[in-house]
Amino acid sequence: MKTKEMVFAALFAAFIGVLGMIPPIPLGFIPVPITAQTLGVMLVGCFLGKKTGALSLILFIVLVALGLPLLSGGRGGLSVFVSPTVGYFLSWPVAVFCIGYMTEKMWPTLRTWKLIVINIVFGVLLISLIGAPVMAIITDTSVWAGLVGATAFLPGDCIKAIIAAIIAMQLKALSPIEDKVNNS
Description:
Layout: H1 3-19, E1 25-27, E2 30-34, H2 37-48, H3 50-65, H4 86-106, H5 112-138, H6 143-150, H7 154-170, H8 176-183
Antiparallel strand pairs: 1-2
């Protein structure tokens, strides 16, 4: 891994931590709040690609496990790994890897609308399909109820998917993916 990729991985882990400073919006009917951090997750996948992006999110998870209050609402430490949000939180590296994989695959013909679709499928739907059932198990409710409750996130997450795609396309020339494509 090149120094530039390591710096980007650390920078984007910090960026997701900064997005965690934006206060969460609690929903009364589901124990998982609306946060800005999924915007960062999608942007990491679009901009860094599968390997560097996944490394960035693994670094972020390690920092949270060590107790840094990087999650929305100033949460951190091992307690978050038994909270209702753990499925969403631990799905982030998987989502980033999938977003990065598809982005790299389509890089030469990449368009904003393609990134939006990638973000919605892997950054919105995949995170919900992993996070909602885990939340349901932890809260002792039905998986179906968890999935239905998670639909509250879809409108905002789709907006975040669009924003992440637009930003990533504007920064495409700076992306480490661009270096990989040009050096191949």
